[in-house]
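May I ask for an example protein's residues together with how it folds?

___
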Amino acid sequence: MTLFLKSALFISFLIFACILGFQESCAQSDSLAVKIDHYIQDRLNTSSLPGLAIAVVRKDSIVLVKGYGTTDGKRITADTPFAIASLSKAFTALAILQLVEKGAVDLDAPVNRYLPSFVIDDPRGTSITIRQLLHQTSGLADTGFPELAFAEQPHTLDQAVERLKTARLVSAPGEQFHYHNPNYQVLAKVVEAVSQEEFSDYLRKHWFVPLGMSHTQNVALTHLFYAAPDGLPRGNIFAFGKAIPIQEPQWFVNGAAGMISTANDMAHWLQLQLNEGVINNRPLISRQSVALSHSLPSNPASTYAMGWYANDNKDLYHSGILWTYSAEQILLTESGYGIVLLFNGGLNPFVDYYSFIHDIAELTAHEVPPVSRWPDWVFQACLLGILVVGLGLSIRRIIRKRSGKHKFRHYPAWRSWFGVIGRLWPLFLLLLIPFIITALSKRVLNWERIFLMMPDVILLLGALALSNSILSIIQTIDFIKIRQVKKESQN
């Protein structure tokens, strides 16, 4: 056999092997896409969610980009706009790091070097650095500045920074992690001050256009979601197992949670992260800056990088939650997958958004497909059922309010009063809900947002509290009358 023939056979073998490898890779990708597609359809069948959009990518390929269900009466596609909420923070972080690369920003410089208007009524506020804002270790927190509970909202970044004069630091800068949206509002204003460009314009020019994110935009206030060129359909709250479309309540979101995007656009964003700052062979930011945005602070110990949480596996994750929209994104750094899920449903204790992305991450690792879950409404129905039964019993007692009146004659006073006060537990629980939420989440919400989060629970618990309070008043009056008659008869 001549050398030429041997070489030709060897080259043919290599080509054949490459074709087989490519076909096998495509088959695996197709198989994964089918598995994810089936999983989402099964989950939506047992969920209160009307729909969602998903993007699953690798560095150089798209595994799946698709929309499911409907939103505000329209079919969801890969180009349907969604509010991505706090997924916006990672964009703000990279905007800052882009300016750091240009030498315009020093991460360890005090914020007021760039924003003289950044003044906090605490002498420690002057030492807050850009890096601490990025890592959410500035000392600012909801418990010291409850921005989610304020009735009046700012309209510009200047106003957002100005109102921080009334903020109270809950810890010294650099000592503790506190997730707080104003940290990223201040960072957005730093971008404006340094670049001399309005923040939304900066993102569009330096990030959205180069990334090919043609359906992505940033706004300052939630009511502007619906006035944007790619107007946002209404999202949903949930009550009694049903999705109810409403507009997002008014809230200042610039820099921290103000972006609208699509599954197709977010696929480009994830690929930028996986390719360490390069998109279409064009570097938008250095590999070192991307790595820095994914890195945790050494002091204090924290799981928050710069717009990303990191777990023990070094996977990077962040959620975004509004009252009518939610989003989840994850970078599986070992396997090289990026996943984003966009939901047209908002914050609700009975809708488990994280389980979607967790299960899909398992599918990418070729784990056994997740078992079927209980429908969302099961747990909600159980709680609501308890409240309805309690309400029915209370109303029944009010209607038959005299039937147990004679019992007070034989009870000691302490037992009667204990029974009367004990009936006020629904009222006490209702009044404690804001404090329970703050204790569990460290976030401070006003009653409007608490109601939108679980309207059915609040309505039924409120009705139960009212009926039991009425019953307590009736029993108190009866108890006082009986004791008075008993006292007169003894005299």
Notes: Residues 3-45 form the longest helix (43 residues). The two ends are 130 Å apart (CA to CA).
